[in-house]
Amino acid sequence: MIASPDRTPLPREFFDRPILEVAPDLLGSILVRTTQDGPIALRLTEVEAYDGQNDPGSHAYRGRTPRNDVMFGPPGHVYVYFTYGMWFCMNLVCGPEGRASAVLLRAGEIVEGAELARTRRHSARNDKELAKGPARLATALDVDRALNGTDACTSGDTPLRILTGTTVPGDQVRNGPRTGVAGEGGVHPWRYWVADDPTVSPYRAHVPRRRRS
Protein backbone atom coordinates (compact mmCIF):
# COMPACT_ATOMS: atom_id res chain seq x y z
CA MET A 1 0.00 0.00 0.00
CA ILE A 2 1.40 3.42 -1.05
CA ALA A 3 1.27 6.09 1.62
CA SER A 4 -0.65 9.29 0.88
CA PRO A 5 1.72 12.10 -0.10
CA ASP A 6 2.63 14.72 2.48
CA ARG A 7 1.23 18.09 1.38
CA THR A 8 3.50 20.13 3.69
CA PRO A 9 5.46 22.81 1.80
CA LEU A 10 9.17 21.99 1.56
CA PRO A 11 11.08 24.45 3.77
CA ARG A 12 13.68 26.77 2.30
CA GLU A 13 16.32 24.91 4.31
CA PHE A 14 15.68 21.87 2.11
CA PHE A 15 17.04 23.79 -0.88
CA ASP A 16 19.85 25.53 1.01
CA ARG A 17 22.11 22.49 0.64
CA PRO A 18 24.63 21.15 -1.90
CA ILE A 19 22.98 20.54 -5.26
CA LEU A 20 23.86 16.83 -5.38
CA GLU A 21 22.00 16.29 -2.11
CA VAL A 22 18.92 18.26 -3.11
CA ALA A 23 18.45 16.77 -6.59
CA PRO A 24 17.80 13.10 -5.66
CA ASP A 25 15.83 14.16 -2.58
CA LEU A 26 13.38 16.05 -4.82
CA LEU A 27 12.15 12.82 -6.40
CA GLY A 28 8.66 12.06 -5.11
CA SER A 29 7.98 15.70 -4.20
CA ILE A 30 4.74 17.29 -5.39
CA LEU A 31 4.78 20.43 -7.52
CA VAL A 32 1.48 22.32 -7.51
CA ARG A 33 0.71 24.81 -10.27
CA THR A 34 -2.31 27.02 -9.59
CA THR A 35 -3.91 28.40 -12.75
CA GLN A 36 -7.04 30.44 -13.43
CA ASP A 37 -8.71 27.21 -14.54
CA GLY A 38 -7.70 25.26 -11.44
CA PRO A 39 -4.72 23.45 -9.89
CA ILE A 40 -2.43 20.88 -11.50
CA ALA A 41 -0.25 18.70 -9.26
CA LEU A 42 2.75 16.73 -10.45
CA ARG A 43 4.90 14.10 -8.69
CA LEU A 44 8.53 14.55 -9.68
CA THR A 45 10.09 11.43 -11.19
CA GLU A 46 13.17 12.82 -12.97
CA VAL A 47 15.49 15.76 -12.28
CA GLU A 48 18.92 17.01 -13.34
CA ALA A 49 21.46 18.96 -11.25
CA TYR A 50 23.45 21.99 -12.47
CA ASP A 51 26.24 23.35 -10.28
CA GLY A 52 26.70 26.92 -11.45
CA GLN A 53 30.22 28.19 -12.03
CA ASN A 54 31.69 24.75 -11.24
CA ASP A 55 29.73 23.15 -14.08
CA PRO A 56 30.36 23.72 -17.83
CA GLY A 57 26.80 22.54 -18.52
CA SER A 58 25.22 25.24 -16.36
CA HIS A 59 23.77 28.53 -17.58
CA ALA A 60 25.73 30.22 -14.78
CA TYR A 61 29.13 28.72 -15.69
CA ARG A 62 30.44 32.03 -17.05
CA GLY A 63 28.95 34.16 -14.30
CA ARG A 64 25.90 36.22 -13.56
CA THR A 65 23.74 37.64 -16.36
CA PRO A 66 20.22 39.08 -16.57
CA ARG A 67 19.04 35.72 -17.91
CA ASN A 68 20.42 33.56 -15.05
CA ASP A 69 20.16 36.08 -12.21
CA VAL A 70 17.53 34.03 -10.33
CA MET A 71 19.97 31.09 -10.12
CA PHE A 72 22.07 33.04 -7.63
CA GLY A 73 19.37 32.83 -4.99
CA PRO A 74 17.67 32.88 -2.68
CA PRO A 75 17.08 29.10 -2.69
CA GLY A 76 13.62 27.67 -3.24
CA HIS A 77 12.77 30.03 -6.11
CA VAL A 78 11.86 29.06 -9.66
CA TYR A 79 14.24 29.65 -12.57
CA VAL A 80 12.52 29.49 -15.97
CA TYR A 81 14.38 29.75 -19.26
CA PHE A 82 13.43 29.75 -22.94
CA THR A 83 15.22 27.33 -25.26
CA TYR A 84 15.41 26.51 -28.98
CA GLY A 85 13.18 29.49 -29.69
CA MET A 86 10.04 27.60 -28.71
CA TRP A 87 10.14 25.86 -25.30
CA PHE A 88 10.25 26.82 -21.63
CA CYS A 89 11.97 24.73 -18.95
CA MET A 90 11.82 25.17 -15.19
CA ASN A 91 14.31 24.70 -12.37
CA LEU A 92 14.37 25.03 -8.60
CA VAL A 93 17.23 27.12 -7.21
CA CYS A 94 19.46 25.50 -4.58
CA GLY A 95 22.44 26.22 -2.37
CA PRO A 96 23.41 29.35 -0.43
CA GLU A 97 22.40 32.72 -1.82
CA GLY A 98 25.06 34.13 -4.11
CA ARG A 99 26.25 30.74 -5.37
CA ALA A 100 24.34 29.65 -8.47
CA SER A 101 22.96 26.13 -8.68
CA ALA A 102 19.62 24.71 -9.73
CA VAL A 103 17.75 21.48 -10.38
CA LEU A 104 16.07 21.10 -13.76
CA LEU A 105 12.66 19.42 -13.44
CA ARG A 106 12.77 16.86 -16.24
CA ALA A 107 9.66 14.72 -15.81
CA GLY A 108 6.78 13.80 -13.57
CA GLU A 109 3.41 12.15 -13.13
CA ILE A 110 0.32 14.38 -13.18
CA VAL A 111 -1.56 13.33 -10.05
CA GLU A 112 -4.23 16.06 -10.10
CA GLY A 113 -5.64 18.20 -12.88
CA ALA A 114 -4.80 15.85 -15.74
CA GLU A 115 -7.79 17.17 -17.69
CA LEU A 116 -6.23 20.68 -17.64
CA ALA A 117 -2.79 19.35 -18.60
CA ARG A 118 -4.33 17.51 -21.57
CA THR A 119 -5.66 20.80 -22.98
CA ARG A 120 -2.06 22.01 -23.27
CA ARG A 121 -0.47 18.73 -24.37
CA HIS A 122 -2.63 17.66 -27.31
CA SER A 123 0.17 15.55 -28.79
CA ALA A 124 0.50 13.33 -25.70
CA ARG A 125 -0.64 9.81 -26.58
CA ASN A 126 -1.54 9.06 -22.94
CA ASP A 127 -1.30 10.64 -19.49
CA LYS A 128 2.14 9.12 -18.88
CA GLU A 129 3.49 11.39 -21.62
CA LEU A 130 1.92 14.62 -20.35
CA ALA A 131 5.08 15.72 -18.51
CA LYS A 132 7.67 13.31 -19.92
CA GLY A 133 10.55 15.69 -20.57
CA PRO A 134 11.37 19.21 -19.30
CA ALA A 135 9.65 21.18 -22.08
CA ARG A 136 6.58 18.93 -21.90
CA LEU A 137 6.49 19.36 -18.13
CA ALA A 138 6.53 23.14 -18.41
CA THR A 139 3.91 23.09 -21.16
CA ALA A 140 1.58 20.79 -19.22
CA LEU A 141 1.82 23.07 -16.18
CA ASP A 142 1.44 26.30 -18.22
CA VAL A 143 4.87 27.59 -17.13
CA ASP A 144 6.62 30.45 -18.90
CA ARG A 145 9.04 33.28 -18.09
CA ALA A 146 6.30 35.17 -16.23
CA LEU A 147 6.89 32.67 -13.40
CA ASN A 148 10.65 33.22 -13.32
CA GLY A 149 11.67 34.12 -9.75
CA THR A 150 8.50 32.75 -8.11
CA ASP A 151 9.00 31.60 -4.52
CA ALA A 152 7.97 27.92 -4.43
CA CYS A 153 8.44 27.49 -0.67
CA THR A 154 5.38 29.40 0.48
CA SER A 155 2.04 28.00 1.62
CA GLY A 156 -0.02 31.04 0.67
CA ASP A 157 -1.62 32.16 -2.59
CA THR A 158 1.15 31.53 -5.11
CA PRO A 159 1.15 30.12 -8.66
CA LEU A 160 3.77 27.46 -7.84
CA ARG A 161 4.39 25.47 -4.65
CA ILE A 162 6.67 22.53 -3.92
CA LEU A 163 5.37 20.05 -1.33
CA THR A 164 7.03 17.18 0.52
CA GLY A 165 5.22 14.38 -1.30
CA THR A 166 6.40 10.80 -0.71
CA THR A 167 10.06 9.90 -0.22
CA VAL A 168 11.48 7.58 -2.88
CA PRO A 169 13.54 4.77 -1.28
CA GLY A 170 17.24 4.96 -2.09
CA ASP A 171 17.24 1.60 -3.87
CA GLN A 172 14.70 2.97 -6.35
CA VAL A 173 16.76 6.04 -7.29
CA ARG A 174 18.96 5.83 -10.36
CA ASN A 175 21.48 8.29 -11.76
CA GLY A 176 23.39 8.70 -15.00
CA PRO A 177 24.65 11.20 -17.60
CA ARG A 178 22.62 14.31 -18.25
CA THR A 179 20.46 14.32 -21.35
CA GLY A 180 21.48 16.32 -24.41
CA VAL A 181 24.36 18.19 -22.70
CA ALA A 182 27.47 18.77 -24.79
CA GLY A 183 31.17 18.84 -23.91
CA GLU A 184 32.57 18.53 -20.41
CA GLY A 185 29.19 19.20 -18.85
CA GLY A 186 27.72 16.13 -20.50
CA VAL A 187 29.81 13.60 -18.60
CA HIS A 188 28.45 14.34 -15.13
CA PRO A 189 26.10 11.58 -13.89
CA TRP A 190 23.79 14.20 -12.40
CA ARG A 191 20.47 13.10 -13.83
CA TYR A 192 18.36 11.31 -11.21
CA TRP A 193 15.17 9.35 -11.79
CA VAL A 194 12.77 6.87 -10.20
CA ALA A 195 13.60 3.36 -11.43
CA ASP A 196 11.11 1.84 -13.89
CA ASP A 197 8.73 4.79 -13.69
CA PRO A 198 6.88 5.13 -17.03
CA THR A 199 6.87 8.94 -16.90
CA VAL A 200 10.69 9.21 -16.97
CA SER A 201 12.05 10.55 -20.27
CA PRO A 202 14.47 8.48 -22.38
CA TYR A 203 18.18 9.29 -22.28
CA ARG A 204 19.53 11.02 -25.37
CA ALA A 205 23.14 11.99 -25.94
CA HIS A 206 23.90 15.46 -27.26
CA VAL A 207 23.56 15.84 -31.03
CA PRO A 208 25.08 19.03 -32.51
CA ARG A 209 22.52 21.17 -34.31
CA ARG A 210 23.26 21.71 -37.99
CA ARG A 211 23.10 25.23 -39.32
CA ARG A 212 20.72 25.78 -42.16
CA SER A 213 22.43 26.48 -45.46
UniProtKB/TrEMBL annotation:
Tell me which EC number(s) this protein carries.
3.2.2.-
Give the family this protein belongs to, as stated in its UniProt record: Belongs to the DNA glycosylase MPG family.
Matching PANTHER family: DNA-3-METHYLADENINE GLYCOSYLASE
HAMAP family reported for this sequence: 3MGH
Question: What are the record keywords, sorted?
Answer: DNA damage, DNA repair, Glycosidase, Hydrolase
Q: Which domain of life is it from?
A: Bacteria
Fetch the Gene3D superfamilies from UniProt. Answer: Methylpurine-DNA glycosylase (MPG)
Please provide, alphabetically and separated by semicolons, the GO molecular function terms listed in this UniProt record. hydrolase activity, acting on glycosyl bonds
- Protein name as annotated: Putative 3-methyladenine DNA glycosylase
By its UniProt entry, which Pfam families does this protein fall under?
Pur_DNA_glyco
